[in-house]
Design a protein that fits this description.
225 residues; 20% strand
């Protein structure tokens, strides 16, 4: 039988979370709003220094990283609500790499080791995932998805366009695919517009579409943010 002293000194595991889910979500939104590059720097240099009174039950940084998993589904729902009705008829699509480690550490990397894959982007080879994004001409998100790093950029296009997307879809040469172009036109009435490769026949592109194609750099700005 345990004595009173041993009972009080016994460690308790799986303690209930004192910080609420809504507070975790709020912290994540603030982190992105003030544009800190690293969550750790944000946590120690901003959150604990200036916002501690607003979050009296703030856990340690390590514990906070563990608790952030609980916010994934609500954050995805929140993001989906923000993207609704953002389509203006002028859309841009592209992908960017989400590397989970440096290329030199791939063989001994353990983070997402069973799900991440080697892929190649315009910047070279990487190990991780791809973020596929559609934005409008204002730089607002229309739709997005994440795939393994070895997935072809054209593969998730149909799924991304099936909801909230209409009008014109501008892309780089990596999205050239006649069957995809025909499918988008036939099933969703979406016009996929790209430039042609050097070994392809030139095609007539209207002056307006050429001007809009030159604004594809806008999606790179979104990726940077």
């Amino acid at each position: 039988m345990l004595t009173q002293k041993s009972k009080s000194s016994k460690k308790t595991r799986n303690k209930p979370c004192r910080i609420s889910l809504s507070e975790i979500i709020t912290i994540l939104v603030v982190f992105h709003q003030i544009k800190y590059r690293e969550f750790k720097a944000f946590y120690y240099n901003y959150l604990t220094q200036w916002l501690k009174p607003a979050f009296p039950n703030l856990p340690s940084y390590t514990r906070m990283v563990e608790l952030m998993e609980k916010a994934i589904v609500p954050m995805c729902d929140y993001l989906q609500s923000l993207m609704q009705n953002n389509c203006t008829g002028i859309n841009y699509i592209d992908s960017t790499s989400l590397a989970v480690c440096d290329n030199h550490r791939i063989n001994r990397n353990k983070v997402f080791a069973e799900t991440a894959q080697r892929g190649k982007s315009s910047m070279g080879w990487f190990f991780g995932f791809k973020l596929h994004v559609i934005i409008n001409d204002k730089g607002e998100l229309v739709n997005l998805t994440v795939t393994k790093g070895n997935v072809d950029d054209r593969q998730p296009v149909k799924r991304l366009c099936e909801s909230h997307v209409f009008g014109k879809l501008f892309a780089d040469k990596g999205y050239i695919d006649k069957s995809l172009t025909d499918w988008l036109d036939e099933h969703l009435d979406i016009e996929l517009i790209t430039n042609v490769k050097k070994n392809m026949k030139s095609k007539d592109i209207s002056w307006l579409n050429r001007r809009l194609l030159k604004r594809r750099f806008l999606i790179e700005t979104v990726f940077d943010v």
